[in-house]
Amino acid sequence: MKLHTRYLPQASSTCADESECFACDHQPAINEIEKVQALVAQLRAIILPEYEMIPDLRLELVSQLFGSLQDCASKAILELWRYGESTSYMTPVPHYDGHQWRKYGQKNITNSKHQRSYYRCTYKHEQNCMATKTVQQQEHNTTETVMYTVVYYAHHTCKANTGPALPHVIETSTPQSAMSPDRIIASQETVSPHTGSHKILENGHATQQLTEDMQVLLKKIACAPLDSDIWEMDAILCRINAC
DNA sequence: CAAATTTGACCACT
DNA sequence: AGTGGTCAAATTTG
Question: Which residues are within 8 A (CB) of A180 and not within 5 positions of it... i.e. 6 or more apart?
Answer without folding.
Answer: A87, A152, A155
